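Dig into this one:

. . .
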Amino acid sequence: MSRTALRLKPEPGDFSIGDLAREFDVTPRAIRFYEAEGLLAPQRQGQRRIYSARDRTRLKLTLRGKRLGLTLSEIRELIDMYETGRDERPQLERFLAVLESHKSALEQQRTDIEAQLAEIAAFEKRVRKQLGAQRRRPG
């Protein structure tokens, strides 16, 4: 039976939106959002969505990509490259480039945060010193 044919009952390995939401600890709304963004393509039985093992894998990869800080377009690109079934090398090279880019951005953010924390510490020290001097002064 083709994926586009209407099925009267779910096949083994099919999942409801609730099944996936529970398994991955996300809301059904998040799953519908990923569907609207073209990352998932469930079958429909009236209003009911039926997700395949392929959709489950795509959701798993989407959530993993989000944890890594990838954008939805980067995730879609990587998943779609993988599904072409051809040589994995271009996908792996692209994934590595995306990871390196995100790593570099995070390292820059860390440097910026450390600089801000140092500046805050210096201001705190000055303010505490001023407060201490005011306490020692006769009122």
